[in-house]
Design a protein that fits this description.
The chain is built from 7 helices and no strands. With 142 residues, it is mainly α.
Length: 142
């Protein structure tokens, strides 16, 4: 039985409209929750509470980089999407927030590019990214 054109048209409209129906607060919270899970892998290693394993670190840094690059400020923090754990300072200091986000993204990308093979190298490459993550929370999270 052939599929009728109205069914195809309706499916295409639904597919195109789906991103417009997304909730930026829920989307950014999900992204940050994922980021937190990845940091719970990397943080204890950097602190020496878990053993360093290059494969584990690299896999987590790859996930963290993908997460960081998916953090689209324009979409996730559009005007009218205030709320959640996001501080009002994001919308009153959008340039500062964008700069903080960019520093974090660059720090994560640099940590991944460093491909640390021992604990000292990992700490040196991951430290700036972790500091940028924390600094953003201080200014832009309620």
């Amino acid at each position: 039985m052939p599929i009728k054109q109205p069914v195809i048209a309706a499916a295409l409209v639904a597919l195109i409209a789906a991103p417009a129906l997304a909730d930026p607060i829920e989307d950014r919270q999900a992204l940050m929750k994922e980021r937190g899970q990845i940091m719970r892998t990397l943080g204890p290693i950097a602190q020496g509470r878990q053993p360093f394993d290059a494969a584990t670190v690299m896999a987590a840094l790859e996930e963290l980089n993908a997460n960081a690059q998916a953090h689209d400020v324009a979409t996730l923090y559009a005007a009218g999407s205030e709320g959640g754990d996001a501080a009002a300072a994001i919308w009153t200091d959008m340039d500062g927030f964008r700069a903080a986000d960019e520093r974090y993204k660059q720090g994560v990308a640099a940590a991944l590019a460093a491909a640390p093979q021992d604990l000292d190298a990992f700490r040196a490459s991951f430290g700036p990214a972790a500091q940028n993550c924390g600094a953003c929370h201080e200014s832009y999270r309620d």
